[in-house]
Amino acid sequence: METPLHPDFPFGPHTPTSVPSAYWVGPRHLAGDDGRLYDTVTDTLTRLGWTSLTIVRGRQERDEAPKDRQVLRSTVLHVSPDSLRWAQWVLPDEPFHLGNLPIAWQISARRDTSSPLAQWSAYFTPDVPGEVLADFLAALDDREQPAVPFGGPELVLDAVTAHGWLRDIDQPTAGAMDPTFASHIRLGEVPPLIQDADPLVLVAEADEALLAGWQAWAEPMLGAGYLWAASFSTSVPHDLVAAFADSLSSSAPVLRRVLPESTRDRLLRAPAS
Q: Which end of the chain is more exposed for a tag (fewer CB within 10 A), N or C?
């Protein structure tokens, strides 16, 4: 005897109206940025009391209407109240890439206000989870001296292994990865164009170890491209990288409306009520 299907539960693919508008998903490091990396970070900086500035550079001909001005560069800059740390939204300019992905946010800090140069910088591409950047910025804002070293590399490795990540077999004191081998964090050679004020970096060709800085990335399928990448220059304090690593490897789910195509099938999802 056949039982008729309930009309509210049709056989076959769900219709768009039956798809939840948001999900709680995990793991966090594969969840992407929900298409809101700019908003998530700027909301965080606003709550922290950082000042927002927009720098526009362009070309305007004589007698040209303002609406016709050719904008060559537009940078959104956020500066902390003590002017020792700042964050730039640089995605529209795409100054350079990490893992073939454009840089979205550049975050920097200096020792004091007597020099305009950053002591260190950190770079993040799109699809770095916004929650992770928010936690990194909160840790940076909470630090009285943002450019003074504190602790060693073990802080970073302890942060991820506490959440079940595995130390790199070949470099157990310098790297770790998630249990699915999709995401990695490693202390090693810094990519080109990463800015750092340590003078030893200038002579690093004589000793590659002098270039060591933390690098993190997600590569869901080997050889198929990166989901996101992050690079920390040589002088970024290890405890700040540990704050990033702790949040990145957290098992706490995150709310998402937009799922990355490359990790959609690898995410655990629960409809958000």
A: N
